[in-house]
Amino acid sequence: MHIEFHGAAGEVTGSCHLIEVGKHRILLDCGMIQGGREAEARNALPFAFDPGAIDAVVLSHAHIDHSGRIPFLVKSGFTGPVYTQKASRDLCRIMLRDSAFLNEKDAEWENRKRERKALQPVEPLYTVADARVAMRQFKGIDYGVKKKILPGITLRLADAGHILGSAIVELWLEENGVQRKLVFSGDLGARDRPILRDPAYIESADLVLMESTYGDRLHRSREETRNEVIGIVRQAETARGNILIPAFAVGRTQHILYEFAKHYHDWSLDRWQVFLDSPMAIEATEVYTRHTGLYDAESAELWRKNSHQTLLPNLHLCRTANQSMSLNRIRSGAIIIAGSGMCTGGRIKHHLKHNVWRSDCHIVITGYQAGGTLGRKLVDGATQIGLWGEKIAVKAHVHTIGGLSAHADQAGLLDWYGHFDRQPPLALVHGEPDSMDALAECIRDKLGTRIIRPRPGERIDLQHPLKSA
Q1: Which of 336, 360, 383, 448 has the most CB atoms less than 10 A away?
Q2: What is the pTM of this model?
Q3: How far is CA 465 from the centre of its chain?
């Protein structure tokens, strides 16, 4: 009985952990590595285990850094079920299709260059057809349902409060009369966030795997965040420019729309035209409207009163490429919400090309930016960026709004872990080294917990937690 770490060990993306109990093997997540070109090239490498020998996947939530390699896993021989919360299954149908489409386009672009050089063509990591086949293996389950998924392995999901359908994973494991309970946090949301319920507290575990994305910082309060947004809107209005918001299609976009609807008059948003320029975000928002039973009471009431099309009277949905391109002619008064959230692809790159060199433009970064991404370069103060082979000056004002993050901060992570009885051993995953160091020191100082930071490929014997096998 042991666990091996094959992703998000010492880094944020690519979540993937292998659990063996007797003759059975399951994966916790099977995510895509995100970042620069070198990092993302690792997605095409063979798995460090035999996909055909995996009996099941347990998926914490739909974000691509947790789900994005599942079609590649299926393509490589995995035939078992993928267990996830029902809303996550619905979101994955959208997100994996989009990921596959981008893989196909990337391969097509690369092959054009390779053909001119008389080189052999490359295949996409997986295709839209592959993603469709993988979705047939998804099994949606509700929060709170205890389900035996294999001999010696029982599963229950609890609300993680990160995005719709995000789950904390509880696993009861038994082998040769030895019983252990493992809890995987998935990605934890911040408490008192709009739309979603707070992350559930779990009482017991023999080993806890916890994310540490923002383990080295505290988010601003909701009030401070709102004041910051008001300041940005007023600055941009005075400068008579546009506001660009790179946003993840699932979670962040819906959060932003909620805040805009709630503060429509307070923030003078009636003076702007708001464009949601992301077909995937539009589809994801429709999924959100079908799962209002997962909302907190305040948000459920607001979304009952308004469908996403009338949530804002000045909201325009841009589904087609022509609708998106028409925005490039707007010089002022536009708030453009577009993917991707880390500016690695999608329509936001086109809007950056037409706006980032303008000093009257404001760019609002609302989420984590992985190292090597265009979004990270903007956050780090780049004065020049490259887009399609062209160097473009950065004159726009770049704002980082940490209070809109879908991740718990250091205090939130400490609070969630602190509710376990007797502070079980803790393995920190899904974080950069500095974040892990800060969080580990904080937890040790306050709770005296024994903590490990697994390395890629490291194995932990679950019969004797914290001992490498």
Answers
A1: 336
A2: 0.90
A3: 28
